[in-house]
Amino acid sequence: MNIKYGMILAAGLGKRMQPLTLKIPKPLLEINNSTLLERAINLLISHGVYEISINVHYLSNQIKSFINRKKFQVKITISNEEKLLDTGGGVLKGTQNFSDKPFFVINPDTVWRKDYLEEMKNLEKIYLKNNKPTLLLVNKKLSIDPSFKGDFNLKNENI
How far apart are CA 97 and CA 68, in angstroms? Predict the structure, then answer.
């Protein structure tokens, strides 16, 4: 069994990336002629995901227009957040159509490349083996900006 559903968290305000995000939402920032959102979508498609939910809020019309123009070969549903729901609320609302099926949750903050397919396969394998949610954490020493505090911190180097 492969995980066939994915959620992309794209509703944030992009404050850390200002002034770049004053007129364009962070998921639509481009690196090498490809938006962060497009990279996230392509990673999920490359893994075999066939249904993606994307939550939107800030400058949401730009994201909706982008999705409509690109015509990705996968079903994409937009989950519009009138009010920001934060990560958990956004995932809960955005994945209602997935019923009880497993799904990936990724964000377009990462510059996703096909090189990450192996990590996705490993996450899926661990999830399917243990039937428990699985989270990918990145060692800060490997980060472009090791001073960034991030959302999760491991205190024990042996974990």
Answer: 20
Q: Is the Cβ–Cβ distance between 8 and 49 less than 8 Å?
A: no
Distance of alpha carbon 84 from alpha carbon 60, whole angstroms: 12
Tell me the per-residue pLDDT of 34-51, one tens digit each, with 9 for 90 and over.
Answer: 999 999 999 999 999 999
> What is the pTM for the complete model shown?
0.86
- How far is 46 from 37, CA to CA, in rounded Å? 14
> d(Cα 31, Cα 130) in Å, to the nearest integer?
36
**Three-state secondary structure of the chain:** CCCCEEEEEECCCCHHHCCCCCCCCHHHCEECCEEHHHHHHHHHHHHCCCEEEEEECCCHHHHHHHHHHHCCCCEEEEEECCCCCHHHHHHHHHCHHHCCCCEEEECCCCCCCHHHHHHHHHHHHHHHHHCCCCCCCCCHHHCCCCCCCCCCCCCCCCC
